[in-house]
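[Discussion] Sanity-checking designs against the backbone

I'm trying to build intuition for which residues belong where. Below is a structure token string of 239 positions. I'd appreciate it if someone posts a full sequence so I can compare it with mine line by line.
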């Protein structure tokens, strides 16, 4: 596998991921904890799982499956077949935690600086691209959908916390080449030479790639990424 040029092995050898541990531990250890329950997974392990998601454009369910299925993923995460592997809900919860804490931008900056130290970002021209991220399709009443489109949260959702937790009021429908998609769109700015993503933005799927706000953001605003930067995969679904 090493002889075939595993890119994850190059990251593991070039980056000391313990550099993220201090920041993650300092910020996440301050969160309130319930009584009992199992101890949390290693913070660096969870962060590296988010990197895998970005690298291979994987959903929470898919990344759980791929970690169990692929030796290269296990090796990147320093896991063995006998180890307990975080499930999709654990991945989602961790990502929500660091997003709410505003940790994403700090982690991104640290990771980008390290990639530049390794000469993995060449800065020879930029390419702006986008891809869909589909999420489970919602089953709502007509009036509920109307309220969601108007930017409101239906009362039937807020009145039932369990129902609200299962609903996605930010995802939107769109159509491309006569195919309908429901979810979000990743807008990325990549280094033309290295194919590394240097800026990242998430919108609902209905936002068109030519939207002037997207291009202005890519040119002027510092990124607040959903997760760290890595090369775009050629096999991903295009716009």
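Best answer:
Here's mine. Compare freely.
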């Amino acid at each position: 596998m090493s002889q075939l040029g595993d890119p994850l092995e190059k990251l593991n050898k070039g980056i000391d991921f313990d550099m993220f541990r201090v920041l993650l531990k300092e910020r996440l250890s301050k969160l309130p904890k319930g009584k009992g329950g199992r101890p949390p997974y290693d913070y660096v392990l969870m962060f590296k799982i988010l990197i895998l998601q970005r690298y291979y454009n994987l959903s929470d369910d898919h990344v759980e499956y791929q970690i169990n299925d692929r030796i290269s993923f296990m090796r990147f995460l320093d896991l063995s077949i006998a180890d307990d592997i975080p499930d999709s809900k654990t991945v989602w919860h961790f990502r929500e935690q660091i997003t709410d804490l505003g940790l994403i931008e700090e982690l991104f900056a640290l990771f980008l600086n390290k990639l530049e130290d390794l000469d993995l970002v060449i800065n020879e021209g930029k390419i702006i691209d986008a891809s869909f991220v589909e999420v489970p399709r919602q089953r709502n009443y007509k009036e509920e959908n109307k309220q969601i489109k108007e930017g409101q949260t239906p009362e039937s959702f807020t009145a039932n916390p369990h129902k609200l937790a299962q609903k996605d009021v930010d995802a939107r429908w769109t159509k491309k080449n006569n195919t309908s998609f429901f979810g979000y769109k990743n807008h990325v700015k990549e280094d033309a030479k290295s194919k590394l993503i240097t800026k990242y933005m998430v919108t609902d799927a209905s936002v068109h790639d030519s939207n002037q706000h997207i291009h202005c953001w890519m040119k002027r605003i510092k990124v607040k990424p959903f997760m760290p930067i890595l090369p775009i995969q050629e096999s991903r679904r295009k716009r």
